[in-house]
Amino acid sequence: MVGVDFGTLSGRAVVVRVADGAELGSAVHEYAHGVIERTLPDSDVRLGPDWALQSPQDWIDVLRVAVPQAVAASGVSPEQVIGIGTDFTACTVLPATADGTPLCFETPSRPHAWPKLWKHHAAQPHADRINQVAARRGEAWLPRYGGKISSEWEFAKALQVLEEDPEVYARAERWIEAADWIVWQLCGVESRNICTAGYKGIFQDGSYPPRDYLAELNPDFVDFPGKLATGQVGDTFGGVRLAPLGGSAGTLSATAAAWTGLPEGITVAVGNVDAHVTAAAADAVRPGQMVAIMGTSTCHIMPSDQLAEVPGMCGVVRDGIVPGLWGYEAGQSAVGDIFAWFVDTFVPASYHEQAGEMGMHAYLTSLAAEQPVGRHGLIALDWFGGNRSVLVDHNLSGVIVGQTLATKPEDVYRALVESTAYGARMIVETFEKSGVPVEEFVVAGGLLKNPFLMQVYADVLRRPLSVIGSEQGPALGSAIHAAVAAGAYADIEQAAAVMGRRTEAAYVPDPARADAYDRLYAEYRALHDHFGDGRLLHRLRAIRNEA
Prior knowledge:
globular; seven-stranded mixed beta sheet; alpha/beta; Nucleotidyltransferase, domain 5; six-stranded mixed beta sheet; 2 domains; 20 helices
């Protein structure tokens, strides 16, 4: 099987043996355009604050470059590959024509014609209105999203396009998640997966929000669900099937076979989200197993056999992680991005000289790890990319309290690490207070390579951390889904048990440090509640945007 993970800055492919999940070869392709945040490619057209776009050409190049390289590295003959699965960041969404052509290919000078990356937060005012109107009307779907729809999701981003560039909105015959668009390119058949439709597209209990609600947002928004073209699972709406996870979307087309070097006609799995497929890679697809995929941001996903309303969650969707269970999602908008921002912006040159070949993150980590808990005297709020859960407000911003003239870079670095752990504890506690127990906390993603950070999380959470057994969690998870789609396994649970892996209780909390962190977490909660109303932070952001 081949699994392809489309990330924020790069795409990676892995070749996996169906019999045991062994990873035989992998390759990474860095996106030529990366994250488009300031100006459009090959243009002087500037973007506004909080914009984040991507180029579909980068995604196609992953298929052309990374997949053949991974197969070559594996020593496996292309003819031995029986299926391919893919996953994507979400909500990464694009406007396209009815045949799937991205509008940015036709009008590259129009910012709203480009795909909006998951961390495009410029639609926050539109999300605010979506939530205000829904709350006033008592829309039944709103509690399924913790009481608030994020500015990262499909409806807020589409409403922004409608109201800021109605011509692009009118030309967009499809508003489609990149997770589904890439599958369309692979097999030539348009489909929509139940995961992104539910979590990112407000599709609940077989329908979208009602027309009169959409009309109240904007009269021209009333037919927006027609651009999503999804209906009941297995049924069609607008001629497009809403497909269950682990299902087959079709077979590899001749065009995609030429791109990838794989045989035409092999199975193409239904699209999915990077975080959600990772649960299978960690063999964490049973109720109560929360998987935190920790990278530039963190997504927390967990299957459950019960439905509850969890304040500030990203969503709960039936069959959203594995068929037959409710799937919960929450998240933190920035984690690794916070550490990278600090290192890139605020560390003095003398530290870079001292770090040498060790690298700045490793050097700061080594200095921070020498401190006892609380020595730096700081508390930070992890809102440098806004707050995804539990406040669902991307106009919030980061806060650091307690700095003095004696504060050093390693102090701030440790406080930022701890702040993300406090944010994760807030999420776990919110789930458990809502009657959804977290039985096991499983970590995946690039940040698990930092043992100090993992130990901080174990101490702050006061619980053991299990860790995934693969450095390519999403790509492995996509390969597992492809194995199910190709018929090698009966369902995702069976495939995950054989092909997925994790180490239980790899990090265990230290009681003394955990007690010390309890005191600091109480201060974090106080700071969280004080600034969480957004009044001060919103005013500052408005002043910045005006300037």
